[in-house]
Amino acid sequence: MAHESTGAIYAAAGANLAIAAAKFVGGALTGSTAMLAEGVHSVVDTANQVLLLVGMKRGKKPADTRHPFGYGREIYFYAFVVALMIFLGGGLFAVYEGIERIRHPSPDADAHVFGYTLPGIWVNVAILGFAIAAEGFSWVVAMRQFWAEKGQSSAMRAIRRSKDPTLFTILAEDTAALIGLLIAFTGVVLAHWLEMPSLDGWASVGIGLVLVGMAVFLMIETHGLLIGEAADPAVVAAISELVRAEPGVLHLNEVLTQHLGPSDILVNVSIDMADDLSAGEVESLVTRLDRALKQRNPDVTRVFIEIQPQADHAVRAAA
User: Fold this and answer.
1) From the CB of residue 317, how many other CB atoms can be counted at a distance below 10 Å?
2) I want to staple 272 with a disulfide (CB 3.0 to 4.6 A). Which of 26, 103, 124, 251 is the partner?
3) Helix axes 2-30, 33-59, angle to 10 degrees
4) What are the φ and ψ backbone dihedral angles of 194, each rounded to 5 degrees?
5) pLDDT in tens, 182-192
6) How many CB atoms lie under 10 A from the CB of residue 296?
7) In terms of DSSP bridges, do strands 249-261 and 264-273 run parallel, antiparallel, or are they unpaired?
């Protein structure tokens, strides 16, 4: 999944760099606030993709004495920072610029390029058309990879279940960008057609609200991963089934799991074992369970097995 996520990030970064340059040129030539807001949005998106790549790289650092469980959660931290940047650098800026344009409306200026005068409306339309095409390509790449990952689940359930924030963050960014571009296109065209420059400002406000909403959604999703989420219920069920099937296990008291990274699951199992097992048999059982759990799911990297009578565990759980 890391390779696929990286491909989606590179596709998004390349598209956003080209789009940002085009939008800023258009905004500078015509004075469109919606174009300027979209340009800032694209710059923020590009910076976000760089942050995600940094988080993925740092998350692969090996464990050390300071972080004995590794650095897998680095990607969760950087994904949360990305959501924060979308909120502050994209959403609030677009809302502010839009309000200023509504308060002080002025028609878009014609563009003067190499001695030629080009109508501002057509410059904006051309640039927005290019941006929609480039962003659409990035969105298709992210959507294909997300669709392959989600399986039979609904899109929302797949996002809530996913422990890899990179892919759904890129997909959310691209979706918000496409919606924002359509809003900008509509605002620019209507502002010119109806001779109401304030509509360009309202388009910028609309773009900002879309970005704020998407940022809040991403914050909620990445927050859960950042503070520690359990493995998918299907993974927990498979672990429980395997442990209960092991001879010598009288009762499975509890299974605790936590994602230390997108592909790094810590498992803690509490079991009640038969009292007549020798120390060697207990050691063999623990070794078999550790090996079996890791073979069953390669994402299980650490297994801790706690041997505790069922009654004692029940007392502790009730305390």
Assistant:
1) 10
2) 251
3) 160
4) -90, 0
5) 998 898 889 88
6) 14
7) antiparallel
Helices 165-193, 2-30: inter-axial angle, 10-degree rounding: 20
Contact indicator for 120, 109 with CB cutoff of 8 Å: yes
- Rounded Cα gap, residues 26 and 119, in angstroms: 11
For helices 2-30 and 120-150, give the axis angle rounded to 10 degrees. Answer: 170
Can you spell out the DSSP letters for 154-219? -HHHHHHH-S-HHHHHHHHHHHHHHHHHHHHHHHHHHHHHTT-THHHHHHHHHHHHHHHHHHHHHH
Contacts of 142 (CB under 8 A, 6+ apart): 8, 11, 12, 167, 170, 171, 174
Alpha helices in the chain (DSSP H): 2-30, 33-59, 74-85, 93-103, 120-150, 155-161, 165-193, 198-227, 233-244, 279-296, 310-318
Q: What is the pLDDT of residues 262-310, one digit of tens each?
A: 889 999 999 999 888 888 999 999 999 999 999 999 999 999 999 998 8
